[in-house]
């Protein structure tokens, strides 16, 4: 199973570990052409699942884990988009999706007129508002814990609202609109004792700023557009019970070897 999981994720490093290592300072919020944002096609999050606790799990959960890893491993990495992963899991007969997933989009918009804000300095009000806005977008403590995005650092980058003066005419008139993807991550949260299901979710954050300045009076509108999508999958017990004992035994062993 470890080899299969490696084929799916590339490594068993968890989403939170990738995010912690990400260097937010390299993002140029005013250059949308640069591929410098936080992007994870699909990363695992294991919660309390480990080599010992997985042995204590319900057998059907183990079979679901093995079946999911097998199905995802068959999809070439370059084709493993968010939409494709959802499709594969929805079509897996051993999985049962909860009837209603979560699909939420929120905007945080800040508009104000700043006098002599010409150096691109962060808007402190914006920084303070981003964190509670993000928590409200997600509304899932387990997701917040498993991603551990340093929203304060990101907010400071987003809040770079000033239109930088780079020529004399710009002192009198300058318009700038910037839109930049900051975060696009897909995470597969594995079942554990407290959460007996797969949770597949995606977080997208796009920062934007619209600055208009005439003479030394600058009017800024800046903000973040956020999207959160999540689906929960449980074992389809009625189908699993029809599997032969040998198939079940093999799947259970594969799951228990996840961390081998």
Describe this structure in words.
Strands 1, 2, 3, 4, 5 and 6 form a six-stranded mixed sheet that branches. A hairpin with an 8-residue loop joins strand 4 (173-189) and strand 5 (198-214). The protein starts with a helix and ends with a helix. The chain has nine helices and six strands. Mean pLDDT is 82; it is low at 113-120 and 161-173. By secondary structure, the chain is an alpha+beta fold. The radius of gyration is 22 Å and the shape is elongated. It has one domain.
Note the topology.
Elements: H1 2-9, H2 15-21, E1 38-45, H3 59-73, H4 82-91, E2 95-97, E3 102-115, H5 124-138, H6 141-147, H7 151-158, E4 173-189, E5 198-214, E6 217-235, H8 237-240, H9 245-256
Parallel strand pairs: 1-4
Antiparallel strand pairs: 2-6, 3-6, 4-5, 5-6
- Note the main sheet: 6 strands, mixed
Oligomer: single chain
Give me the secondary-structure category: alpha+beta
Helix content: 25-40%
**Outline, from the CA principal axes?**
elongated
Order of helices and strands: HHEHHEEHHHEEEHH
State mean pLDDT (0 to 100 scale): 82
What is the distance, rounded to the nearest whole angstrom, between the alpha carbons of the first and last residues? 8 Å
Count of separate structural domains: 1
How much is the radius of gyration in Å?
Answer: 22 Å
Find the count of extended strands (DSSP E, 2+ residues).
6
Task: Please count the helical segments.
Answer: 9
User: Percent of residues in beta strands?
Assistant: 25-35%
Low-confidence stretches: 113-120, 161-173
């Amino acid at each position: 199973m470890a080899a299969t999981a490696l084929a799916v994720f590339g490594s068993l490093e968890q989403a939170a570990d990738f995010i912690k290592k990400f260097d937010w300072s390299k993002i140029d919020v005013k250059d949308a052409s640069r591929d410098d944002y936080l992007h994870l096609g699909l990363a695992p999050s294991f919660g309390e699942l480990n080599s010992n606790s997985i042995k204590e799990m319900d057998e059907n959960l183990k079979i679901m884990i093995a079946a999911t890893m097998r199905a995802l491993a068959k999809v070439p990495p370059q084709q493993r988009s968010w939409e494709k992963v959802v499709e594969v899991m929805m079509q897996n007969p051993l999985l049962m999706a909860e009837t209603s997933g979560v699909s939420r989009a929120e905007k945080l918009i800040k508009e104000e007129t700043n006098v002599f804000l010409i150096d691109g300095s962060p808007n402190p009000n914006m920084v303070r508002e981003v964190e509670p806005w993000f928590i409200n977008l997600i509304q899932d403590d387990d997701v917040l814990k498993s991603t551990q995005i340093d929203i304060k650092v990101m907010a400071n980058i987003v809040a770079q609202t000033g239109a930088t003066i780079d020529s004399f005419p710009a002192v009198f008139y300058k318009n700038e609109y910037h839109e930049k993807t900051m975060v696009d991550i897909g995470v597969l949260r594995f079942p554990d004792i407290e959460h007996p299901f797969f949770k597949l979710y995606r977080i997208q954050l796009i920062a934007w700023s619209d600055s208009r300045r005439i003479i030394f009076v600058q009017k800024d509108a800046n903000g973040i557009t956020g999207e959160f999508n999540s689906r929960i999958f449980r074992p389809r017990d009625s189908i699993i019970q029809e599997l032969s004992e040998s198939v079940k035994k093999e799947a259970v062993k594969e799951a228990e070897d996840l961390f081998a």
